[in-house]
Amino acid sequence: MWWRAGRRLLSTAEVKRHRPVMKLENHRPVVQNDTWVAPNAAVVGNVRLGDEVSVWYGAVVRGDPNFVRIGPQSNVQEKAVIQTVETVETGFPAVVDVGECVSIGPGCVLRSCTVGKNVELGAGCLVLDGALIEDNVKLLPGTLVPPGGRIPSGEVWGGKPAKFVAKITEEEARRFFCLASTRS
């Protein structure tokens, strides 16, 4: 309800503050104490964030209608979107499962896919329904992994659609990927 008081507009409507972590229907996100979610990011529904995960400004992680899991020491950078679909036509799981030490670049979109550990997704990558990205992979910025696509372990891929670019050397692997998977 609005009314005028002199030259100012006044409202009786309650001002709502954005909550970065929100319950959806009967699902409340599970967020660890050492996880950071930016004030204007959204983590909604059936989502589980592992230890030391960070969800940056403007990112959206939606656990509806299926489950989203993001492994320890992973990050979801600015304006990235992670979402699920109800079912995947190929029969692959319709959940999003992101492994340990994954860097999801700004503006990436992940939809009902599986991402292994020690993966670097460049800015603006699209990983679509039923896609599988194995461990120790780097996707160049703007790469499109089509529905049901598979990126083998230890390789660099790029393009629309994704094509093999190079093998990852041991030196590159040490430089690119975190060593959290070696901790005991």
Report a brief summary of the structure.
This protein has 184 residues and is mostly beta strands. It is built from 1 helix and 22 strands.
Structural class: mainly beta
CATH topology grouping: UDP N-Acetylglucosamine Acyltransferase, domain 1
The rough form would be described as globular
List the domain count as a whole number: 1
As an assembly, this protein is single chain
How much helicity do the residues have?
Answer: under 10%
Give average pLDDT, whole number: 87
Would you count the extended β strands for me?
22
Instruction: Give the DSSP E fraction (strand runs of 2 or more residues).
Output: 35-45%
Radius of gyration based on Cα positions: 19 Å
Please mark out the parts with pLDDT under 50 across 5 or more consecutive residues, or reply none: 1-5, 9-13, 180-184
CATH top level label: Mainly Beta
Task: Report the order of strands and helices.
Answer: EEEEEEEEEEEEEEEEEEEEEEH
The description of the largest β-sheet is:
12 strands, parallel
CATH architecture: 3 Solenoid
Number of helices: 1
First-to-last CA distance? 59 Å
